[in-house]
Write a structure and sequence with these properties.
The chain contains two helices and two strands, in the order ββαα. With 69 residues, the protein is an alpha+beta fold. Strands 1-2 form a two-stranded antiparallel sheet. A hairpin with a 6-residue loop joins β1 and β2. It is elongated, with a radius of gyration of 21 Å. It starts with a strand and ends in an 11-residue tail after the last helix.
């Protein structure tokens, strides 16, 4: 089995992309933790859909609320 190597997404050092690397896609636990900190600090984000898509949900009753008959 050949070992695939690539650049760590946090620091750019060489990292292995196989089960022997418990921190993949990072090279170390430190890089994995730093990346997680970026997400928690809201410095990374995933674009959301337009806010208008959620306006319809505001008209729905809360979960487990009996509906009027």
């Amino acid at each position: 089995m050949t070992t695939r190597k690539y650049a760590c997404r946090q620091c750019g050092n060489s990292a292995q992309l196989d089960p022997s690397n418990p921190w993949r896609p990072f090279c170390s636990e430190r890089c994995k933790t730093l990346d997680l900190g970026e997400w928690f600090g809201e410095r990374y984000s995933i674009p959301a859909e337009a806010q208008d898509d959620f306006n319809d949900a505001a008209d729905l009753p809360p979960p487990h609320t009996p509906r009027p008959q």
